[in-house]
Specification:
A six-stranded mixed beta sheet has the order 5-4-18-17-16-6, with helices on one face. Strands 26-30-27-29-28-31 form a six-stranded mixed β-barrel. The chain starts with a strand and ends with a strand. Among the domains are: 172 residues, Dimethylsulfoxide Reductase, domain 2 (3-Layer(aba) Sandwich), CATH 3.40.228; 136 residues, Beta Barrel (Barwin-like endoglucanases), CATH 2.40.40. The relative contact order is 0.17. It has 25 helices and 31 strands. 28% of the residues lie in helices and 17% in strands. Bound molecules: ligand MGD (2 copies), iron/sulfur cluster and molybdenum atom (MO).
Length: 736
Amino acid sequence: MTTDTKTSICRFCHANCGILVDVEDGRPVRVQGDPDNPAYFGFTCAKGRALPEQHGHADRLLQSQKRDEEGGYVSIPSEAAMDEIAERVAAIVAEHGPRSVALYPGTYSGPHPASIPAGVGFMLGLGSRMVFTSASIDQPGKHVANAIHGRWLGGSHVFDESDVWMLVGNNPLISMSGGIPPSNPSKRLRDAKKRGLKLIVIDPRKAEVARFADVYLQPRPGEDSAILAAMLHVILREERYDVAFCEAHVSGFTEMAEQVAEFTPEWASERAGVTTEEIELAARTFAGNPATGDVRSGCGVAGTGPNMSPHGNLTEYLLLVLNTVCGRWRREGDLVANPGAFLPLAIPKAQAMPPRAGWGRGESLRSRDLGNSAAGLPTGALSDEILHKGEGSIRALICVGSNPIAAWPDQLKTVRAMESLDLLVTLDMKMSATSKFADYVIAPKLSLEVPGISVSSEAIEQTYVAHGYPEPYAQYTPAIVDPPPGADVIEEWEFFYGLSQRMGFNLTCYPIRAETGVLRENRSAFELDMTKRPSTDEVLDGLMNGSRIPLDEVRRHPHGKVFDDLEIRVGPADPDADGRLDVGNEDMLTELASIRDAGLDDGQDIQFPFRLISRRLPNVYNSSGRDIAKLNGRRPYNPAFLHPDDLLSLGLSKGDVIEISSAHASILGVAEPAPEVRPGVISMAHCFGDIPETETKEALREIGSNTSRLVSNEDVFDPHTGIPRMSAIPVAIERA
Ligand SMILES: Nc1nc2c(c(=O)[nH]1)N[C@H]1C(S)=C(S)[C@@H](COP(=O)(O)OP(=O)(O)OC[C@H]3O[C@@H](n4cnc5c(=O)[nH]c(N)nc54)[C@H](O)[C@@H]3O)O[C@H]1N2
Ligand SMILES: Nc1nc2c(c(=O)[nH]1)N[C@H]1C(S)=C(S)[C@@H](COP(=O)(O)OP(=O)(O)OC[C@H]3O[C@@H](n4cnc5c(=O)[nH]c(N)nc54)[C@H](O)[C@@H]3O)O[C@H]1N2
Ligand code: SF4
Ligand SMILES: [Mo]
């Protein structure tokens, strides 16, 4: 048998590692990191190396499925499924209007760059704006904070050149997120430490990345805003901020300073359960000493932890305030890290784009006065919109690479919502927890069967401050294997194209709107040819219009390339520029004051003494991977990690089954000692388990349990983005 080794891009997660894939008899059999990749340097993780098992998984759908009268499923040709779905969507639109159709793209739209643009294009063609993404149950605070703070058009500092970095509740070595480049984060971190980078980590669990921290704070969950306000207090009191930058480019300084004056490190120390000295050290390490200029560059970023805990917008906002008062933005004459590869050409300017509204924009929901925010429509409230049965209710839902039953907060309500839909379509590689409720499940091609580009890892710069590639790197891969013989699988964009064709409208794809990052030239909207179905390569060419490096040039470099042919420096501000970054947003300062005025005990401490926090596991990607034997070892469930002292005082040992109860619901868990977790905290991964009926005590060690069931989506939630409290959840624990 001959083995062909092909270069490609891993798309098991969003990180886009450059890989070498051994192909035998047309099937992928082995994956390793590509040592000749100039940005990833041969890095892969266990998930990437399990791509062959993912592609050949016994449970993989090779035919689309249709629910029959008895509630079972029968195979249906994809084209026939599209005929029927188009007809049913048309009927629902005719009766209830276009707004009754909603789209939910999730994490597995990321690896397929045409998926969201085509999905959104289809929705706009239909006349519906009801697009809900996982962004609003992920880190919605980022979008809101960036809007109301304003954007610096010279861009932020990037990790590879920074003197200091602060991570508030993210774990980039495992998650590939948090500003340490997704391209081999452990090498980037080791190199940075050798250079002298100072790392500050704030996390109730001493996560993998925290082992590298120079300053580590292990607070009570959900108290990040208090800590950041106190850090600002110290920085202002000790005059460690950038006075000149603040005078020239900042508004709201006085109001902010007055407010944080009351947030002493002593107060925050009580509140967050860390010492005064730790807060002072974090502040001094982050700001440095402006007189000596020992810290010139860096950034503070937050992850999913604090965004899912209460006050996520405020935490993200205070981080931007910290970055801004310390002047952590690229100035006139500074070299820009990434002039653009798949991104359009950078045209950075040393000026602020003034704040925009963070919420109250566009579409309003029927439930709880929620509506569109800078983070999009609130997915945390989508189940309510579906269950609302009056005018404006949602009757049809299309899920692309997403899994609401596993991922949405308030699982019991999500189940009711899925059951009540007139039409549920999922595009999924398996009968996921959600697909089991679907009328149609469309079987997709998997990553190695479709062309791919490294654009998502680069373009994240436009939505998350200090993320993306620190160099103009790009890679393209063609499809390197065919789908298994006999499979009838299609790409996500082809599904939306097929529906648009059948419903008689043109499909236009729109580029994403930049919220952060350096100013760049524009990309145009791109219309697909509806008379002759384009190839995926043609669609990618169209989507990448305006890239600094044309896709065809990238295609010429199969190992990926750093296109470092061009140096771009931040230009001067426009003569009439008068925009300012706002560090004194009234709503945020009011929210901050409310934290000070509210007591620490939210009244639940006696009944629910523990706080359950979110975390990610190395070998799964949300709900994907736990059914792959090579990845799960002997632990296909999500352990309940607790400090050994807590186990002792609860009379529990490793492996005991526990019942975890919030005010809303209960789940089971398998106790696992974890000295890295703060006492009083229980740390568990999401997207495990199934619906309660299947999640029995007997099945616990096979499938784990679903933490989203513990969340009420209407008890504690952010009034702007609708994200409920998904971390720092008060719970009680007892032996089951
Ligand atoms: N309690 C709690 N809840 C959470 C979180 C948390 O930390 N705690 N995290 C939240 C976050 S950050 C997110 S992003 C969401 C995730 O929310 P979702 O995106 O809704 O959930 P996933 O499990 O990632 O769903 C991905 C689906 O895509 C399918 N899939 C795999 N490969 C392919 C493919 O190639 N094509 C297609 N079409 N489908 C494929 C998988 O089988 C799976 O069913 O969950 C959120 N929910
Ligand atoms: N291996 C793997 N990689 C993934 C994923 C996966 O499932 N597995 N999921 C992907 C997705 S969808 C996303 S959005 C990214 C997320 O990327 P990250 O945000 O880096 O996610 P985590 O690794 O869960 O890190 C969150 C950290 O927040 C901490 N935390 C929880 N609550 C609080 C709090 O109140 N305050 C503070 N300060 N910390 C808190 C947790 O202990 C945890 O260590 O990862 C992506 N990458
Ligand atoms: S980090 Fe993500 S992209 Fe890289 S090998 Fe692992 S799963 Fe694949
Ligand atoms: Mo996410």
